[in-house]
Amino acid sequence: MGAGSSTEAEREPLLVPSHVETNSNPVNSRVYGRRWLVLTLFSLLALMQGMVWNFWGPIQNSAAHAYGFTKSDIAILVLWGPVGFVPWLLFMWLMDKKGLRLSLLVSTLFMVLGAALRSIPLTGQPLRRWLIHGGQLLNGLAGPTMMSAGPYLSTTWFPPDQRATATAVASLFAYLGSAASFIVGPLIVPAPNDTQALTTISAAVSDIFIRDRIQLVMYAELAAIAVLFGAVLLYFPARPPIPPSVAAASQRLSYRSSICRLLSNLRFLMIALAYAVPTGVLAGWSGVLDMVLTPAKVSQVDAGWIGFWSTVGGCVFGVAMARFADSIRGMLKLILVLMLAGASLASTWFTLTCLTSYTHLPSTSAILYTSCILVGIFINSSVPIFLELFIETVYPVPEGITCGVVTFLGNLVTGLLLFFLTFYCKDVSWLNWCLTGSCLFSLVLILFFRESYDRLYLDVFVSV
Fold first, then answer.
1. Membrane spanning segments where (predicted)?
2. 292-317 pLDDT, tens digit each
3. What is 31-462's CATH number, 1.10.150.20, 3.20.20.100, 1.20.1250.20, 3.40.50.880?
């Protein structure tokens, strides 16, 4: 399948000193303490972007009463996130040519405008719905930078023994934001009470109250994004004065050459599909998790807690595994195999549990909670490990371009899934089968993938 390992010539550094002296370092490197501030600002922005993207799914029942949203409307609101990845090539070019500061400022500006647009308190429902959709689209346009720039930031600012950890923190905070929306939305926005016979007046008052609470959350998110935009505007350098490692100082391929090399590299395409299919399906599935769990008699609040713990568990476990990968290098494929095997078992368990009338398996709240949370933990925690393996496989292609391609593919899968959901939204049990199949498909690809560590080779052997 063309999955041969890289040659010695491909692992040669592109930037070498003009002459080598005994007992001298080939590249002058330095690590700055401010890297943690840079990582914190970026991670908080990624958290807010994920939180705004996943705002409507956890409160779909409340949104239906407040704004008249149907299940198709909720699917489209979630779909604006993947649609925002359409101009991803422009953002990757901006990051490659101008550095992270300018691309982050542009993305954060889109987030501010989107949060402001959807927060305009108009009384006319048709126009208000258009503004909400427009705000979600603008927030989606920030996705290419927020979801792709984590490995670029870690290589630019962090030494080799901290890179995987920094990548995990930067890339998983967007998922943590979507997890927070599972809690913030259902706890602040009350679920409609459809079980009681309400008069027309009391129902109208109830809908107005729900709409006011939704408005309160949107105002709070707008304020948080505006504060972070001001912080990035005041201080967020494009790169440190001195690079932290040999790999960070090395010359990279040009933008056009990088795209051509990625698209012609069968090993990269193989692992890119292994990443994009399960993560893309999980993103679409979790974005409408309340809709998925409603047939199982799970309330809006309980569905929010399930989504919260599955994502938070994945983030915590992902950081722990990234730290393990930093301490024991060259084990990325083994870690992914174990994670995807666990995801395949957990997703199969959850899918069969939801079909208890056919399988006669026990279906309790504890089983639904456990199986659903395990799916999120195993798949979400694999994201930073995948990203690090991408960089190692295709080095010296720039990190931002590589991760931009794979996150675009992941969002393409999410977009296709949500597109079909707008047409087949009455019975959503097929989503569970898609999740199970995606995990098994990814596991097979990883088993046949032959790993290589080109960037690690450069840092370990060339820097000595």
1. 36-56, 76-95, 102-120, 132-153, 165-189, 216-236, 266-285, 305-322, 334-360, 366-391, 403-424, 430-449
2. 777 777 776 777 788 788 888 888 88
3. 1.20.1250.20
